[in-house]
Amino acid sequence: MLRLGFTPLLALVLGGSLGAAFPQNALKKSCSLSKYQFLVPHELKAVQKMKEQFEGIMLLSDRKCNARLFHRKWKTSELSVPDRVMLVEAELDLATTMLVLPAAPGFAETRQRPLAFLTQVREDLRGCMATEAPSHQPSGKLRHWLQKLQTAKKTETTGCLEASAILHLFQVLNDLRCAALREQCT
Fold this sequence. Notes:
Blueprint: H1 6-21, H2 24-27, H3 41-59, H4 81-99, H5 105-110, H6 112-132, H7 140-155, H8 158-167, H9 169-181
Helix pairs in contact: 4-6, 4-8, 4-9
């Protein structure tokens, strides 16, 4: 028969009951995007490598694009923090959707690391919106941009959307940094 002393037995029982009383998800209530204020250099290098490889592919194809999604008359810093988070979430949604499209084997391999990173960021942002601003309504500026994005998804070619998303990834990452700062950013 297994013999446990009183102290280890008490720790085992209390540990189990406290774990049930405080589920791990309940302890994770706050939203912290601070880890995205300064992006890890190897992630930036992976994104840069992917962007450069994509630019080389683009030279060989004809991708005309009228969607100027990332050319805005306002700056991200002009938005409220919840609007910034919504903006980056929408930008990342577009980027990750485009990065999962079928591609040439070399490019498919190059984009795996950025895709995994951007997918994780998007999930973190969704968690923040769910905990901090679940019923947030976007400002007029952001609402207009979100409508422009929806229109582009319906009217532009997949190649155009892919080019827009990939070529502007560093703008998206800067918008992410701005959202993570939670204060005025440039």
